[in-house]
Request: fold
Amino acid sequence: MLPYALFHKQFMPLSEAKIGILTHSFHYGTACFEGIRGNWDAEREKFCLFRVEDHYKRMLNGCRILKINLPYSIDELCQLTIELIERSGYHEDVYIRPLAYKSSETIGVRLHDLENDFLIIVTPFPPYLGTKGIRCCTSSWRRVDDTMIPARGKICGIYVNSALAKTEAWENGFDEAIFLTHDGHVSEGSGENIFLVINGKLVTPPSSDNILLGITRDTVIKLAKNELDIDTVERRIDRSELYLAEEGFFTGTAAHIAPIVEVDHRPIGNGDIGRICTKLQKLFKRVILGRNPKYSGWYTFLAKL
Ligand SMILES: Cc1ncc(COP(=O)(O)O)c(C=O)c1O
Reply:
C-alpha cells in the first residue's frame, strides 16, 4: 500500500506529488492544514472518519485568516477525502492531512496577489504520544499570541513555535512540552489541548489563552458531561495548578487522550494514570470507531473499500 495524495485536483501516489522550491508557503509558512483520523474498525471492517465536517469547518476558518479562497464546499472536501481513502486501500488507522496553501512561485512576504492551491495526503498513523503516562515540562518558549499568529487556525507558520517547544522538551528528556501564554497562564501542548482534574471537575484553558479549539477537546467536554456527569470549567490556569491537579491529560486527533503523569519532575496525583482519564479513554475509543449511536452525527463511514 502506498501513501496517496490529492494534488492539483488529481489523485496520485504521494511520491508523484511535488511542489516547486519557490512555492510561497514553503518559504513563509503561508498555509493552513488539518489533521483528521480515519479510524479502522478491524472487527467490523470499516473506516470511521471522525468529525470530518468539523475539521473542514476549522480549516476554512484558517483559510479566511490567510485570505485563501478554496473552490470547494465542506461537502465536496469530505467527498474528496472519502475518495482518497478508498483509492489508497488501507486497512489500518490513517491520518488525513489536507493543506491549503499559497502556491505562487514567487519571492515576497504577503498574503495578497497570490495563487492558492489545495492538497490532501493520507498515510497510516499509529497513536502519536502513546497512551501510557506522558512526562512533561513547562516550556521556556511562550505560546504565540492571537495578535501574532492566531492559534484559532492551524496555520503552518505557527508550528515553528510548537517545534521549538517539542524539541526543547525532548532534548531535556521529556515527552512533551506545556506552553504558557505570554502572561504565564497554561495554554496547551505543542500539538494537543490540556485538561486538568481539580476537585473532581475538568478544567481546561479558555479559547482566549491562545489555544487551538480542538475537536477532541470538544468531544471530551461532551463525553464527560453526557456520559460521566462531569462538568468542564473553561478558565485561566496558573502554572502551579499543574503541580497540584488530581489528574492531567492531553487531547488531540493525533494524541487521542494521553495521560500526563509528571510535570517539571513532579508527579501528577499519585503519578499513575488517573481514574477520570481512564474512563474518558474508554469512552473515546468507542466513539471514534463510530460505535456509540448516540453520536452518529460525528461519524462518516466509508461505504466501500
Ligand atoms: C496546537 C494544537 N493544539 C491542539 C490540537 C488538538 O486539536 P484536535 O483535537 O482538533 O486535533 C492540535 C492538533 O490538531 C494542535 O496542533
